[in-house]
Each structure stands twice: as structure tokens, then as C-alpha cells.
Amino acid sequence: MLAKNFKDEASPVIREYLVYLQTIKGKSPKTIEEYFLDLRTFFRFLKIHRGIVSADTPFDEISISDIDLELIRTVTLADAYEFMGYLIDDRQNNSSTRLRKTSALRGFFNYICVKKHYIDEDPLKELETPKQKKSLPKYLTLEQSIQLLEAVDGPHKERDYCIITLFLNCGLRLSELVGLNVSDIRSDRTARVVGKGNKERIIYLNDACINAIEAYLKVRPADGLKDRNALFISNQKKRLSSVSVQKLVYKYLEKIGLDSQGYSCHKLRHTAATLMYQHGNVDIRVLKEILGHENLGTTEIYTHLNSEQMEDAAKSNPLAKIKNNSDNE
Questions:
Q1: Residue 78 C-beta-side C-alpha neighbours within 13 Å
Q2: Closest Cα partner for 180 from 239, 254, 125?
Q3: What's the pLDDT tens digit per position in 210-219?
Q4: 231-267 residue pLDDT tens
Q5: Mean pLDDT confidence for 170-182
Q6: Is the CA virtual torsion 268, 273, 276, 277 positive or negative?
Q7: DSSP class of 239
Q8: If residue 110 lies in a helix (H) or strand (E), which one and from where to where?
Q9: Containing H/E element for 204?
Q10: Given pLDDT bands bounded at 50, 70 and 90, which one contains residue 305?
Q11: Burial class (CB in 10 A: 0-12, 13-18, 19+), 205
Q12: Burial class of residue 21 (count of CB atoms within 10 Å of its CB; 0-12, 13-18, 19+)
């Protein structure tokens, strides 16, 4: 079921699209919520831009429950670019946020034009995606990764060690790790992971993961659990939350002096991918499956090389020792 605010705030045609994303496309609740919020922002902007509501109307109070096909048919490509300008100037949205909003708009208009034929032509089919600045992912070195594991201590050291081990060895997303159930850990040294869009994949567990899981299961609480399925249990006998996992990761990062350097749970995922690629010579297509990426292009960011590797590559060139004959004269 869609969240209450979707039902209350979205007009029938927008609500229909959100239900389509949920039931046909299998999008996660978080993705559906993001698309709803993006569409709401656009149509609120459009109402002000068109003078449908007064310019001094508080933005957050503008209703989109009345957005109908009559208004939608008037949307132009110019409106979309005006909206992108508004996102930059007034909301200071970065390129990643604007890219998501672009995807939400294009998906919605494609649906009502191509899927439902509510409009004759898609006005946003030529809407270009914002150019994103490509930056290398931040990750821990092999030495720092070992230090992080060695920093784990305290009353929940088996649980915390297991969590960090899975992050660093399997490249799990935070939501994937929190969502793990005991039954997802299989006897054939694999684990079932539910990723983005509720897509399942199987990951293989190496010796470090198996040892960490077995050590944790020996001390995992068994009585009075509020969620008996959850693998990782909190002090309240519930499934460990994303916020709690983030806090424990930050705690151990701080112990090794990395708390203020932009590291996070997601950076541990980057670390796993980078270590597998740089030290394990893992094929990029295999890495794509391990990480659960839809597109190979997303995985290719991990093919970055450090300066030492680039120096070694330059030295290994067969022409590296060839000198100008004039040097011998």
C-alpha cells in the first residue's frame, strides 16, 4: 500500500503512476516516495510559474491534489528547463538530485503518453539529463580496513565485527545489511540479499564472513526477540536499525582517526569493491553482479587506479628503458 500522504496529496493521475511503479515496476517504497516528492516539487513550481497560485503562497502549502490532464497537457520542455534552473538557483540542488528529479519527470510523462495514451505527445522526451561531475569513490586502504576490524570491541564485539566484516568483504548496501534475516545465511556458504527495487541476489561468503557469522550466532540473543527473523539484533531485542549501524560504524572509524574524513557505511561498500578490483583482480562484470548494479557503467567507477599502480604500469612499458642515441655521444 502507498503511504498515507500519497493518497491524501497526489491527484488521481499521479497516484495511478505511483501505484504502477509499486505493482508493475516493483520499485521500493523509498524510491516511490522520492518520485512522489519530486513530482510534487515540480507541480508546485509549475503552479507558481504559471500564476495558478499567488507567488507569496508558502511553497510547502501548495496542493497537487488537483493536478489533472488538462494542466499536464500544457507542460512544455521549456517548463522543465525553467524547473531545473529553479532547482539550482533557489534550492541549491546538486547534479545528482537534479538527475533524480529529471528521471522522475521523464518516467511520469512517458507513462501517461506511451503506456496510457492520455496525451498525444511526450513534451519531455528530449529533456536532457544534468551533467554529473565524475569523482572517484572514497575508500579505505587495505591497512585502514584491517585497523578498523581490529578496533572492534565492547559488549557487542561479535555482532559489530560481523557487520563490518560483511561490509568490507561483500560490499553490501546499508539497507541490505540491515534487512538480512538468519534464514538468508545458507549452508552452502552463500547469502540471499534483497537490494534496490526488491531485487534478490546471491552472494558468496568467504572464510572471514563465515567465521564472523558463526562467532556472532553463538552469542546472538535468542529470548524475547521482537523480530526473530532478523540477523542483527539491537539492545531492545529488535532488528538493528540503519541509524544504529551507522552509529557503530562511525564509532569505530573515529577510533582509527577517520571520523572527520567523509567516511561512512557506504564508503565501506566502496572499499570492498575497490579491494576486490585492485587486489583480487576481479573482473568488472563479476563485480557488477556482486554489488547488485543494474548497469556496468555504475561499476566502472571502481576501475580507478592509484598512483602506485599507474607508476608501475609506466615502468612496465617495454619502451621504458629506450634512450635517445644522442645521450651516448
A1: 3
A2: 239
A3: 999 999 999 9
A4: 999 999 999 999 999 999 999 998 988 865 666 777 8
A5: 88
A6: negative
A7: B
A8: helix 95-110
A9: strand 200-204
A10: very low
A11: buried
A12: buried
CB atoms within 10 A of CB 169: 22
Residue 93 cell numbers, joined: 540542488
Average pLDDT rounded to a whole number, residues 295-322: 53
**Closest by CA position to 105, among listed 19, 52, 34, 57:** 34
Q: At what angle do helices 95-110 and 29-49 cross, to 10 degrees?
A: 90
Looking up cell 531485542, which residue turns up? 237
Decide: residue 264, CB within 10 A, 0-12 exposed, 13-18 middle, 19+ buried: middle
Query: Which residues are the active-site residues?
Result: 173, 196, 266, 269, 293, 302
Is the distance from CB of 140 to CB of 110 less than 8 angstroms?
A: no
In angstroms, the first-to-last Cα distance of the chain is 83
The grid coordinates listed for 289 are 553482479
Cell of 119: 496525451
DSSP track, 54-108 = -TTS-GGG---TT--HHHHTT--HHHHHHHHHHHHHTT---HHHHHHHHHHHHHH
With both helix axes pointing from N to C terminus, report the angle between 157-170 and 265-280 in degrees, rounded to the nearest 10. 50
d(C-alpha 179, C-alpha 161), whole Å = 17
Quick one: what percent of the chain has pLDDT higher than 90? 47
- Among residues 206, 215, 197, 106, the alpha carbon closest in space to that of 161 is found at 215
pTM of the predicted model, to two decimals?
0.57
Helix axes 142-150, 265-280, angle to 10 degrees: 130
- Give SS3 for 191: strand
What is the DSSP secondary-structure string of 24-36?
TS---HHHHHHHH
Q: Mean pLDDT in the chain?
A: 82
Is the separation of the CB atoms in 242 and 236 below 8 Å?
Answer: no
Are the C-beta atoms of residues 231 and 182 closer than 8 Å to each other? yes
Count other Cβ atoms within 10 Å, centred on residue 115: 11
